[in-house]
Amino acid sequence: MAQSYSQAKALWAITRASFKAIFKQPASIIFSLLFPIIFILIFGAFSNGGSSSQPIAIIPGSDTANAFFDSIKANPYIRIASLKDTVAMREAIEKGSLTAMLRIDKQATDSFHTYKVRIIATSASGSNLGELLQQLDYLAIKTELDEAHINDRHYRLEPTVYEGRKFRRIDFILPGQLGFSILFATLFGIAITFFNLREQLVLKRFYATPVKKINILIGIGASRLFFQVVNVLVLILFGYFFLNFTLVHGVITLVEMLLLTMVMLFLLMGVGLIISSVAKTDAIIPLLINIFGFPQMLLSGTFFPIEVFPKWLQDLCQALPLTQFNNAMRKISFDGLHLFDCWKELGILGIWIAVIYAVLNKLMKWE
Fold first, then answer.
1. Structural fold of domain 54-147
2. What mean pLDDT comes out for the span 332-342?
């Protein structure tokens, strides 16, 4: 009797050979793992929130022997810069490195002294000038109340602050970098690999064997997906142990983030296969990948929130698969939601997967 062909052994052989081939390309490891770690360290080193101090300069000749000037010096949100003369000050405010110049003059009246504070700025200060004016106005009112010995105020602020989960910059940056990493690494890995296999007639030879087509795709694709999942695991653990990345539910959160990653990788594998099928030459592959990936890198909340965009552009951003992946990752990691709570994000990703694989079914080429 003829021995039946083992599809399982064929699948395992293809998967193992494809996985070994990945490690013969050091560039894939550097791009998938080293670059995201560098980006995480750079962006994670940014401020963890709070307002930065506004740099100002005091024009020579100003009256600094008063309570208002003392309150400016003591204010943590205002920094007095040391510049040698008014020429250097004007150059600084024109460049935007200085928010404003202040001139404080005492003005005598019949009964008491008043102070005139002249503020000089340029349009280079942008929104910083508005924040500075609010601080100065607050300091002026507080100084007047203190000097008038008015303690019985009509309005008193009594803040109550509860202990909450501290949001760090890394809690926003790392999920975005995970999306950035798997987006380009998967697209380049899948598209270039399948294109080369087709051009070298390897896929055609596979097609002529008893191995089922689906096993060929699963074998090569699974090795790539497993490699990317391992990269994501390393990046999450790196962020957790070295940068205090938040995993609300510990191991459960980690597992759910990896499951979500698998969904996104499955989507991206379809895109990579489409690109490898429509590309006529290997030179066109990077162009097609950038057309799909570059807008998402900028518009999907990878480096900064999409709320900075106009409303019409935010609606467009919400339709992108990487936006939904980033949103779901942040909800799971920091907000403490579970994967089944991200039904909206998973639904949009599911629509993308259905459309992508329907297109792939029409465009997939084996030779």
1. D-Maltodextrin-Binding Protein; domain 2 (3.40.190)
2. 93
Average pLDDT over residues 249-258: 95
Three-state SS sequence of the chain: CCCCCCHHHHHHHHHHHHHHHHCCCHHHHHHHHHHHHHHHHHHHCCCCCCCCCEEEEECCCCCCCCHHHHHHHHCCCEEECCCCCHHHHHHHHHHCCCCEEEEEEEEECCCCEEEEEEEECCHHHCHHHHHHHHHHHHHHHHHHHHHCCCCCCCCCCCCCCCCCCCCCHHHHHHHHHHHHHHHHHHHHHHHHHHHHHHHCCHHHHHHHCCCCHHHHHHHHHHHHHHHHHHHHHHHHHHHHHHHCCCCCCCHHHHHHHHHHHHHHHHHHHHHHHHHHHHCCCHHHHHHHHHHHHHHHHHHCCCCCCHHHCCHHHHHHHHCCHHHHHHHHHHHHHHHCCCHHHCHHHHHHHHHHHHHHHHHHHHHCCCC
Spatial distance between the Cα atoms of 71 and 104, rounded to a whole number of angstroms: 13
Distances (CA, A) of 364 to 194, 208, 275, 311, 353: 10, 16, 9, 37, 15
pTM score of the predicted model: 0.74
- The whole-angstrom separation of Cα 65 and Cα 9 is 87
* Total residues belonging to the chain: 367
Hey, where are the domains in the chain?
8-46+172-363, 54-147
91-134 residue pLDDT tens = 888 888 889 999 999 887 655 678 899 999 988 888 888 889 99
